From TrEMBL, chains A, B:
Pfam families xref list: Homeodomain
Protein name, entry field: Homeobox domain-containing protein
Superkingdom as given in the UniProt entry: Eukaryota
Gene Ontology MF annotations: DNA binding; DNA-binding transcription factor activity
Keyword annotations of the record: DNA-binding, Homeobox, Nucleus
Ranges of residues in domain Homeobox: 95-138
The species this protein was found in: Brassica cretica
Main location per the UniProt record: nucleus
Amino acid sequence: MMELDNQQQPNPMKVMTDEQLETLRKQIAIYATICERLVEMHKTLTSQQDLAAELQNRFSLGFLSFCLTLVLKQLSFHLSLWSGVDKGGRMVSLYADPRTPSKQKIKDLTEELSQHGQIAEQNICNWFQNRRARSKRKQHCGVGSSNNKNGEGEVETETETLNEKRKRPESLFVVLPDGNNNNVIGTTTTTSPRPEDLCFQSPEMSSDLHLLGVQSNPRDEHLVESYNLYDHVEDYDMSG
Amino acid sequence: MMELDNQQQPNPMKVMTDEQLETLRKQIAIYATICERLVEMHKTLTSQQDLAAELQNRFSLGFLSFCLTLVLKQLSFHLSLWSGVDKGGRMVSLYADPRTPSKQKIKDLTEELSQHGQIAEQNICNWFQNRRARSKRKQHCGVGSSNNKNGEGEVETETETLNEKRKRPESLFVVLPDGNNNNVIGTTTTTSPRPEDLCFQSPEMSSDLHLLGVQSNPRDEHLVESYNLYDHVEDYDMSG
DNA sequence: ACCGTATGAATGAATG
DNA sequence: CATTCATTCATACGGT
């Protein structure tokens, strides 16, 4: 189940709102923090070379992994959501015009559609009603939170929600450290996309550090540590 | 190519290429790997059975608590959604109410939740809707045959569905350690961290138990275990 | 590896 | 027109 059955689209793009991106950044930062802590722990532990059995009792490792698993799953879930594309409506292509059609128009449409199947004017009306309502609501919602930045597509509402049937292909990849597991993390690695392209990347992040998704704050040297760790990640199980 | 056009969202959207997504995945995968590794390592170390009270005091405990706190907060939060615990949090009661909350409430919820992750009113609406619908359906179906135990009857809908649903609180949004936060990457324009608003804030997260494991499902042993830990969470100092 | 469940989401329809 | 319900879909996850 590899990470993605990459769509055969000519130009597969995914969309994310700025907020989504931001949230993603935050979440990544959180993981970074967590990892940082783990790394710290690691250092401490290794330097001490001894540990409390008691710890084990109290903080069941299983639980810890469980937690991490949750978190990771969540992140991956979000990612999947964000990377998805909207699904379109079925009848849409016929009704591309967002504005309320005249009665006559409705009639026409009904006729037209009748040729292809059972349909009543009522259906058409409903459809338009719902469409308007939802359009409106969507707009409203969006306004509430974002409104910054460049407004590009906004009025469009759904004019063409059509064709794009849903696909939402990206399935996830993350793996959960469930105690032992070997995990397969999505193989990946092949691409090396230019980090510059990643929106969540901060310029000041050194080219590799950003893989940890964190801003390199001066005081975040731990992260650097974790970075090293990352270096070794490769020879973990990653490739399986 | 333009599949993005069908976004009826007013917000400006950004696009991610597959490569970008992949990189993102990679990042996440790395976290997963790191966490996994660390957990394993931790396990190994703990198997040595030596004691490190010192460690515990000065570090491990703090860290673990920190991690767990993050997660537990999430868990408790979500559980609260389902269990309707009224610990003085305003949100809780809102969630507890099976009926549809007013618009304003939804707005509030959205706001509050936004502090912890990307969320839109639509999500809230969906959540409530689905909840109602499924509650009802379950009720219908279930009534016919089972409902043994304490026959809550049917009106309760909520109460019983609760028991069924709440076992797996997996959808969480991660919380940022905003307290000291090194803040993240990027600009984070929207965030206005008002800790007061954090629903999790309530330390008295009720008696703990049902927050964590809830019905202590066999599967949730981890949670139960963590319960002990949770006791200590309070004195973790993550800022240090 | 398949199948069932749970859940978020989209949509047609009904109600006020 | 606004809100809600009922249905359906697609995916994620867990168990076998």
